[in-house]
Structures are given as structure tokens and as C-alpha cells.
């Protein structure tokens, strides 16, 4: 069958699943899960929709899910409800005997797409020419396997929002400067926590292939890749002022992918896990405006009716790619596993896996 016909058939069968009633989807997902028994584990990121995350055997942030993947030695199928780079990380951390499935291949991450391997090679040449052998590359896990492999090969490691300080401490002991990929905001906000002045952080623009000094030209300790999360960029300083005047006494809690100016105005900032734990331990009556992905903020609001929880920007949309994973795609993936024909398999080639694993293992070792 031609590739076009295969794609048309694939589309046709997914469209059929999209027509199923909510009850039928729930019944068939539950039935498929129980037939697959312990051959299957479903991992779900906290940003997933409620109707999907309810089926996750383990839910977590990207660091927690990577840790779980690293110890799933006997599971034949791992269905990852999250985005592409997370499924890649899972494949890297599991053996060739195991199969990782992403229910919808369109579940990418626009931030991860902002750094491609060719551009990163060019950047490395540029910065090492300018600053010599003084740089360690560090990549946020929100990056492709190829970028993780590049970082592993050049003595660096991966980072997540929940271990950012530990990884920075390690990196700054190893080298004078960090090349931070691909999220400039997590890099800048973590640098500030380390007391690094803004004028000692520059930004590398991969399109212009040049360095910018948005806060003055000091000797850079951190070279930030010019990338961002389009969801977290929607939380602006004006939203902090607006929410404080609308809800007096409200506390503002944001993810470090938000821009520096917003983070500085917030009462607290931290990873997805930090946000969840902070809300869980707050007393009844606490008011929160949270700057992170919409599905998670809504879930926290439902789970904590004793607190007032709103989004820092009530007009913000959920992460569109995280939301690509829905029950029809999940059921389609599970029933294909039952039929013995896994679809949407995520397989990272062995050369990339080898070096990407080095970068991830270095991170897991110090986290
Ligand atoms: P965590 O590392 O907090 O899971 O975040 C992943 C992510 O995609 C944030 O936008
Ligand atoms: Fe990527 Fe942002 Fe979505 Fe996270 S919230 S998956 S960084 S686009």
C-alpha cells in the first residue's frame, strides 16, 4: 500500500474513533487496559486533560515521569500521554524490548521545535570561537533527542524545572559559562536565583546567528538560546497587577517558563511539582492566581474548593499540543496494541540514544 493510502487509512480509522460516544470511549479504554494487564503502563503529564489523565497509571511532571520510565524494566508497552519529547525521553530510558507509543504524533512542543540540531551546531561553533573552552551545554528536557545527544557528547546534561538549581550548581562548578537551550526564560530565572546579574546573561539568536545583550554587555556567565514557551509567555506583568486589584490578598504563583518580569512580580515561582505541592499545603481560604498550563490550574481549582484558584490570565488557552491527546487517540492506540500492531511508535535511533542517555543520566544522578 502506498504511503498516501496508509495515511488516508490511518486518518479514516482515527476519525471513526472520534465519532464514538463518551460512554463507549470510557468502556472500551477500560476494557483494553484490563486486557493488556501488566503488559501496559500509561504515563500522563500533569498538563493532560482530565478525561485522559484519569487513565494514567502514573502521573507526574517531566522529571517524575522520566524517573518512572527509567525503572519500568518489564513493561512491554508504555503509552505516553504527553508531548513528543517526553515520549522520546521514555524511549531513551527504556530497553529495545519495550515499545513507547505517543497516541497522537501531532502532540509536539513548540519550544522544543525552536532548537534544531544544525542550528545548535552552528551556535556551538560561534560561542566556542568567541569564549573558548569555557562553556558547558545544558538543555531543558523540552528539546529533541538530537539536542540532548549533542549536549551529552559535549560534556553537558539535561535539566527540568524541578531540578534547575541542582543542575545549575553542578554546571557552574564544571565550567565558567552555561549554554542554556532552548528556553531563555527558565535559564534567566534560574540564573537570577544564583545571583548572576542580568548583564552577565546574553541571548544567542539562531536566526541572526549573533549574540544580543538585552540587559547590558557584561562578561556572560549564561548564554541563553532565544526560545520560549508560547503558553507561559501569555502571563504578563500587567496580569499580576490586574489580578491583585480584582482579588485583594491573592497570591501569585508562576512557572519559571514565564518571563523574568512576571516571575519577579509573583509571590512564588517554581516547577509544576512545586506549584501542586504549594497549593496542596496551603490553608483553606488561600487565594491563588496561577501562571501555568490551563488544564492543571483547572484541576487544582476542582481539587481544592476550600481555596480560590484562578488562572493568572483568564483568557489563556491550554497547551494545544498537550491537548492533542484525547480519548479517541488513546483508545485507538490501545486497541492497536491489542490487535498486535502498535501505531505511533516512538523509536530514537541507537547513536542518538547513546549520547542523549548520557545527558539524561548525568541529570538523574544529581537530582
Ligand atoms: P515540567 O518540567 O514542570 O513537567 O514542565 C514541562 C513543560 O512542558 C512545561 O511547559
Ligand atoms: Fe511545550 Fe509550552 Fe506546551 Fe510545555 S506548555 S509542552 S513548553 S508548548
Automatic annotation (TrEMBL):
InterPro entries assigned: NadA, NadA_sf, Quinolinate_synth_A_type3
Metal-binding as UniProt keyword: yes
Coiled coil: none
Gene Ontology biological process terms in this record: 'de novo' NAD+ biosynthetic process from L-aspartate
Main localization (coarse): cytoplasm
Any one annotated GO CC term: cytosol
Any one GO molecular function term: metal ion binding
Subcellular location: Cytoplasm
Enzyme class: transferase
EC number per UniProt: 2.5.1.72
SUPFAM superfamilies for the chain: NadA-like (SSF142754)
UniProt catalytic activity: iminosuccinate + dihydroxyacetone phosphate = quinolinate + phosphate + 2 H2O + H(+)
Family: Belongs to the quinolinate synthase family. Type 3 subfamily.
Function: Catalyzes the condensation of iminoaspartate with dihydroxyacetone phosphate to form quinolinate.
Cited HAMAP family: NadA_type3
UniProt protein name: Quinolinate synthase
Amino acid at each position: 500500500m502506498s504511503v498516501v493510502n496508509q495515511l488516508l487509512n490511518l486518518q479514516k480509522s482515527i476519525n471513526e474513533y472520534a465519532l464514538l460516544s463518551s460512554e463507549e470511549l470510557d468502556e472500551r479504554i477500560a476494557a483494553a487496559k484490563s486486557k493488556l494487564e501488566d503488559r501496559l503502563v500509561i504515563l500522563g503529564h500533569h498538563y493532560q486533560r482530565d478525561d485522559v489523565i484519569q487513565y494514567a497509571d502514573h502521573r507526574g511532571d517531566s522529571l517524575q515521569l522520566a524517573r518512572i520510565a527509567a525503572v519500568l524494566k518489564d513493561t512491554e508497552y508504555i503509552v505516553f500521554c504527553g508531548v513528543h519529547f517526553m515520549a522520546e525521553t521514555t524511549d531513551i530510558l527504556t530497553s529495545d524490548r519495550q515499545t513507547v507509543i505517543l497516541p497522537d504524533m501531532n502532540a509536539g512542543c513548540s519550544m522544543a521545535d525552536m532548537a534544531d540540531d544544525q542550528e545548535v551546531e552552528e551556535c556551538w561553533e560561534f560561542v566556542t570561537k568567541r569564549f573558548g573552552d569555557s562553556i558547558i551545554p545544558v538543555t531543558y528536557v523540552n528539546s529533541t533527542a538530537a539536542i540532548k545527544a549533542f549536549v551529552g557528547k559535549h560534556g553537558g546534561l539535561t535539566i527540568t524545572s524541578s531540578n534547575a538549581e541542582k543542575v545549575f550548581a553542578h554546571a557552574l562548578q564544571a565550567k565558567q559559562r552555561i549554554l542554556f537551550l532552548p528556553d531563555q526564560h527558565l535559564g534567566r530565572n534560574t540564573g537570577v536565583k544564583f545571583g548572576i546579574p542580568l548583564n552577565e546573561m546574553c541571548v544567542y539568536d539562531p536566526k541572526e546567528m549573533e549574540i544580543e545583550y538585552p540587559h547590558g554587555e557584561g562578561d556572560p556567565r549564561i548564554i541563553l538560546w532565544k526560545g520560549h514557551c508560547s503558553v507561559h509567555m501569555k502571563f504578563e506583568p500587567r496580569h499580576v497587577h490586574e489580578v491583585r486589584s480584582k482579588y485583594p490578598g491573592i497570591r501569585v504563583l508562576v512557572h519559571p517558563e514565564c518571563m523574568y518580569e512576571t516571575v519577579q512580580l509573583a509571590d512564588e515561582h517554581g516547577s509544576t511539582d512545586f506549584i501542586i505541592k504549594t497549593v496542596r499545603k496551603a490553608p483553606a481560604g488561600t487565594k491563588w492566581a496561577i501562571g501555568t498550563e490551563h488544564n492543571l490550574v483547572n484541576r487544582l481549582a476542582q481539587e481544592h474548593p476550600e481555596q480560590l484558584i484562578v488562572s493568572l490570565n483568564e483568557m489563556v488557552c491550554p497547551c494545544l499540543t498537550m491537548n492533542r491527546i484525547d480519548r479517541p487517540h488513546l483508545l485507538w492506540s490501545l486497541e492497536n496494541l491489542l490487535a498486535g500492531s502498535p501505531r505511533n511508535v516512538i523509536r530514537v535511533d541507537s547513536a542518538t540514544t547513546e549520547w542523549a542517555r548520557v545527558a539524561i543520566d548525568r541529570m538523574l544522578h544529581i537530582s
